[in-house]
Design a protein that fits this description.
Helix content is 31%, strand content 22%. It is α+β, with helices and mostly antiparallel strands and 312 residues long. The protein has 2 domains: 8-54 and 213-301, no CATH class; 60-208, no CATH class. The longest helix has 19 residues, at 165-183.
Amino acid sequence: MAMSGLRSVTVLLPALDAGLGEAPRLARMLGRADALEPGVLGREAQLLRHFRVVPTRIPVAPLTRLLDARDAGLGTWVRCDPAHVRPDLSTARMLACGTGLELDAAEAEALLAPLRPLFGDFGMPISAPHPQRWYAQLPAEAAVPALVPPEVALGRDLFDCLPPGPQGQRWRRLWNEAQVLLHHNEVNRSRTRRGLPEVNSLWFWGAGRLPDSALAPFSGVLTLDPVLRGLAKLAELPERAAEEAWTPGTLVDLVHVPGPAAIEQGIVAEMAEVLRLGALDEIVLDSTDGRRWVLAPRQRWRFWKRPLHGGS
């Protein structure tokens, strides 16, 4: 979090442990920066460094539901996102999930129609207030097994990623029965004719209840991440537009940017310029690998400092 009284912007970055050799200006800037005590790695830990959430967790499904509908505070939610799965000789692998399928609202509704009775029989109504984000509502007291997020499951043997053991048996059965219904849906025949991947499976993940509260010391948030957008909404923080990125007090999320080279092309020159002009006193950088730095105007004169290298 930013130091009190300073005109500061906080920037969330992806892991920088590889690719800094392709971003010499960023590496030089980080080499001259003031390093902070490293934090716990991972996206959830990164968000919890900047938001005080009660209870202390980042449940994906209810937070994105908060963006998509008005009932996020009712019960327990689990994401049941549309997915494309391809079988091979011994297993199946998920190749796309959610936004990667580019579903529209009409397709989502047609795919959901035969799934509603199935999910109703399992006691978890299913809905899609957003075409690429589907949800099932569980009773408040429902026990939910460990569920693997799609970015971890993509490309892997899915049978290693499904909920294990007796507690997961009900979820595996629901997954199999949903696949049968989706396989026969006319939407998939239409998508195949248009050269698009079939929506032939679902992926369960992100289960939980909406946190009681969230607080953060920011005046606004700029992000493409629906989870962070939901968290900001819970904390009653306004969304910033791109042209407001360097407004003091803003949290700027760049975790979606694919590596140091893209960061260098995108914002390194802007950061250097706002610091040089005195528009900000500092920029706090926080990467998902736990490394953190503070950039300040005086650091540009540290010519003796060596550029940062990956992993250092």
